């Protein structure tokens, strides 16, 4: 029986998202495995992994909000904007030179919509190539600027000083496409210093948090696929908080045949259609070319 659902994986450091997918294909004995947006190799935390026909949900889960816990180091910048790159700029910090009030004020300024330029060492594509491919060859290209959403940004530790740097931890709730490395650099720039992100963990992705995430070690300790399935969330649970529309049996039949719907008032651009028995059938979206309530199928769930 094909494994179906979403696994909230607690990704370890030292593995790429693709490494995790490769390992899970073996553990669940299926080729239909997909992740929901990359985490850098040294970043740990929640990485939802879709199994079986739940892979259809991957792009929607990727669009959901994320939460992170990070450490910011003020005093020097690196090529990769994290602790694993080469130092490119140093601005020594004297003990007490930066106050907690200074930092909290900057964090408040950076809440809301923020313009970001992705780091060179990232998977953002320019002219068909990923930025890190240019960076590894020493080629400079114009990086695209994007608008990201920072919902909350708070300091969660005291500010400590040591060996010409200061460090503190933050928690971030943000939208899709936010680079926490770049956010750490921006915090430093607004304080007047070079900076980088020295540690990062994703604590939640959409409705999935680290409290329910499972490690590869735990999965590998299971003897069968059936045992591992206890950690996999069913599709119904993953999408239960998404906007929904319940339809009658006749309309449900049209949905199962992949038909578009019209004359149905909806409040959301994207929503899940359920039958009267409470079974999710498909995800729909408003047709961008027609403004009078016509909606089109994005994907069939059942």
TrEMBL record:
Entry keyword tRNA processing: yes
Record-annotated active site: 40
Domain (tRNA pseudouridylate synthase B C-terminal): residue spans on this chain: 181-239
Catalytic activity annotation: uridine(55) in tRNA = pseudouridine(55) in tRNA
Top-level taxon of the source organism: Bacteria
Domain Pseudouridine synthase II N-terminal residues, every copy: 25-180
Catalytic activity, EC: 5.4.99.25
UniProt xrefs under Pfam families: TruB_C_2, TruB_N
Entry keywords, A to Z: Isomerase, tRNA processing
InterPro entries (alphabetical): PsdUridine_synth_cat_dom_sf, PsdUridine_synth_N, tRNA_psdUridine_synth_TruB, TruB_C
PANTHER family, per the entry: PSEUDOURIDYLATE SYNTHASE TRUB1, TRNA-PSEUDOURIDINE SYNTHASE
Function, in words: Responsible for synthesis of pseudouridine from uracil-55 in the psi GC loop of transfer RNAs.
Family of this protein: Belongs to the pseudouridine synthase TruB family. Type 1 subfamily.
Name this polypeptide is given: tRNA pseudouridine synthase B
């Amino acid at each position: 029986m094909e494994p179906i659902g979403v696994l909230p994986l607690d990704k370890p450091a030292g593995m790429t998202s693709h490494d995790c997918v490769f390992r899970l294909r073996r553990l669940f004995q299926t080729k239909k495995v997909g992740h929901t947006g990359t985490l850098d190799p040294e970043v740990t935390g929640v990485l939802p992994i879709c199994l079986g026909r739940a892979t259809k949900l991957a792009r929607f889960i990727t669009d959901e909000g994320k939460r992170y816990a990070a450490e910011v180091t003020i005093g020097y910048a690196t090529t990769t904007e994290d602790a694993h790159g080469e130092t490119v700029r140093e601005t020594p910090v004297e003990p007490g030179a930066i106050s907690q009030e200074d930092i909290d004020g900057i964090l408040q300024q950076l809440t809301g919509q923020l313009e970001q330029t992705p780091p060179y060492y990232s998977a953002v594509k320019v002219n068909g190539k990923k930025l890190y491919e240019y960076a590894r060859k020493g080629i400079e290209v114009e990086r695209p600027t994007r608008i990201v959403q920072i919902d909350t940004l708070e300091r969660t530790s005291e500010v400590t000083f040591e060996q010409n740097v200061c460090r503190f931890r933050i928690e971030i709730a943000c939208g899709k496409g936010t680079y926490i490395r770049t956010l750490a650099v921006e915090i430093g720039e607004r304080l007047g210093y070079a900076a980088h992100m020295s540690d990062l963990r994703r604590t939640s992705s959409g409705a999935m948090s680290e409290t329910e995430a499972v490690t590869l070690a735990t999965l590998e300790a299971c003897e069968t696929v059936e045992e591992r399935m206890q950690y996999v969330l069913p599709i119904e649970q993953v999408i239960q908080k998404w906007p929904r529309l319940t339809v009658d049996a006749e309309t449900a039949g049209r949905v199962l045949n992949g038909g578009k719907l019209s004359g149905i008032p909806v409040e959301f651009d994207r929503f899940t259609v359920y039958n009267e028995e409470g079974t999710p059938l498909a995800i729909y979206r408003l047709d961008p070319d027609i403004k009078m309530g016509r909606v089109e199928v994005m994907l069939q769930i059942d």
